[in-house]
Amino acid sequence: MTTSFIRIPSLLLLCSALLAACSTSPGPTASQADVSPTPPTPKSVQPGIVATIDNPGFENKWEAWDEIPDSGDFTAISDDSNSGNHSAKITEDGGRFEQTVAVQPNTDYEVSAFIQGSGEIGIELPAETISSKPEGAGEAWLPLTLSFNTGEATEVVIYGAYKSGEARIDDFSIASMDES
Length: 180
What we know:
The structure is a single chain. The longest helix has 22 residues, at about 1-25. Mean pLDDT is about 80; it is low at about 1-20 and about 20-50. By secondary structure, the protein is α+β, with helices and mostly antiparallel strands. About 25% of the residues are buried. Strands 1, 2, 3, 4, 5, 6, 7 and 8 form an 8-stranded antiparallel beta sheet that branches. The protein has 2 helices and 8 strands; from the N terminus they run ααββββββββ.
């Protein structure tokens, strides 16, 4: 039994000495610093590539969005939403809203939104328009994503529109797909 008591204090003395040596160390060596993982920077915050859709969930009603062409009778703000408290509602043919968004030229982007019903989302570029509508209109909120390259454009128009029946659109987002 006395041998055990002698070994425990010896072990404690050795641990104390190691702790003291580690705490007076000047910091990681170059090889230790090289192996530290650096988290990747999200693509949407890369310098020069950030694009922003203002009021993407219609929480501030029509702020930053334009009703085109003055389609006030065909568009409204709805309390039925994918998230938050509001969404855009389109009730008749001719209903459309849009927002001009600054983008980087020659950059790949994705625009996404959630749609309930039979509306569509789209992107107008100088040379083309890209749009999509959900397969089958229903009560569920369905995600839609459009991919595009800006070409020489420094602005694009993002829109929501009536397709063939009442629709609600919510939670727009835009993200660069380029690495730098």
